[in-house]
Amino acid sequence: MKLRAITFRPQFVPPWTGYSYMTLVMLGRLAGPQGFSMIQEVTGGKVLPTEVQDRILAKADGVPLFIEELAKSVVESGLLRVAGDHYVMKGALPALTIPTSLHDSLLARLDRLGGVKETAQLAATIGREFSFELLAAVSQFPENELSDALDQLTNAELIFPRGHPPYASYSFKHALIQDAAYATLVKTTRYQLHSRIAQVLKERFPDRAAAEPELLAYHHTAAGEIGQATHYWLLAGQRAIARSAMAEAVAQLTEGLELLGALPDNPERQRRELELQLALGQASVAAKGFAAPETGRAYARARELCYRLGDIKQLFPVL
User: Fold this and answer.
1) pLDDT tens by residue, 142-173
2) Is the domain defined by 211-319 classed in CATH 1.25.40?
3) Is the model's pLDDT at 31 over the cut of 60?
4) CA-based torsion, 143, 146, 152, 157: positive or negative
5) Does 101-185 carry CATH code 1.10.10.10?
6) pTM for this structure?
């Protein structure tokens, strides 16, 4: 039995999708027969030993992605051999270790890819979706090696490609796959990669950096570069206000304000906070009105900072 997805035309399609038609698939936990059917799809129709299938279904607890990833992990483990239309165990069942969590399963698959894992880690640091162009600019691998690595990740069904290098873009099959790859990086390496990505965006992709300051804000934040991060959160919030995305603006400006606590309390930090509070007050007025508590708090703090900085010019609009 195969799972079917019904394609339909919705009443409203979010403009950011870029599609006029969408396919929505809502999967709950799969019952036994459906789980067996999904395992058959992964194995290409070859039947796993009954005890192995039972172990997979028991560990997966009916979660579709978990069933798929566990089945792939078992098939790729080297502990089975093909015998006609089915698999047989090479040894006793206790020798077969089925990961106890999806995270462990994904990590095991990444480890089996060897050197390709480093490409997956770098891509995961960029985000759930990434372009070949940006990955190549950040990576230290030659483009032909990078293309081969991405082909291996595609063949392993960890990422999906769109187009062909150097104009290709990719997305991780599932956010959990991105998370698993990212989690294997040590903290210092994460900081370095995020910092490099932010620098490459500014130097090699200035148009995108100007249009999406929230990307730079995110990577500088993840790199621990708080001063630059607060600057770009401010720019992101101001751009969101300009296009009337007030909820987004409030979230971005609040993110910038929360980061300020890690900086020394000096006039430079106070000036940045004043800019953030003024923008937050503007967004709060537009979103909730002058009487909203959030608006009052933003402008009250801005007034206090104006007095501390002796900034009379900003004090008049604040009052």
Assistant:
1) 999 999 999 999 998 899 999 988 899 999 98
2) yes
3) yes
4) negative
5) yes
6) 0.76
